[in-house]
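Q: Hi! First time doing this. I have a protein sequence and I read that you can turn it into a structure. Is that right? Here it is:
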Amino acid sequence: MNTERTLIVVPTYNERENVARLLAELFAVAPGADVCLLDDASPDGTADRAEELFGRDPRFSVLRREGARGYGRSLVDGYRRALEGGYARLVQLDADFSHDPRRIPALVEASRTADVVIGSRYCEGGGVLNWPVRRRLLSRFANAYVARITGLRVRDATSGFRCYTRRALRALLEGRAAGEGYAFLVEATYRASRAGLAIAEVPITFTDRREGQSKMSRKVILESVLMPWRLRLGKKDGGGRMKEVDSRQ
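A: Yes, that's right. Below is the predicted 3D structure, encoded as structure tokens:
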């Protein structure tokens, strides 16, 4: 296994408007990484468009998922692909440009001393752009809610911009994931903490999506509300180590 190989995974569903520019930026900021779209059978032809533009690039691939859709399920499939492909680490981010690809090098660098690196809106140096006050308050409340119920000492447990080492991916795949939507992010953070993995946060600026529509639904919100209680009432937290990394580039 090459200790420097990185796989970038991007869960997609109806992201045709964003995929061309996103992939171009990913290959520009991380030319040594491979990129895999985890596409949930997008009706708008997201995967077809991506393959049309980048299908000849050996660094690019598409995992066309079949069966039950879901953000968490897509990521689990991506984690398996990273392990099977012998990658040393995996970076995950959303396709809507809410996560700036230019922060990927900072996450990768932090993964040299931490197994889980979270691109954090709420650690020192982080922030949010183009969100109304209501969304900002809701996000802050969600993280405080998660921390209070689960005991996690992470400022942004709901962030989907992350980097996992191979060891972290193995730990996350040891048991069956319960979260299907964005609640999976909290579950993954909790399980990493229980496994005693080092968790770091690096600052990012989250920007509301430029194109397309949000994937948030009532079902996703309900699952996010219930997940912390499922974790708390299941198994006790093992108290993983958490630190901040000021690695702005």
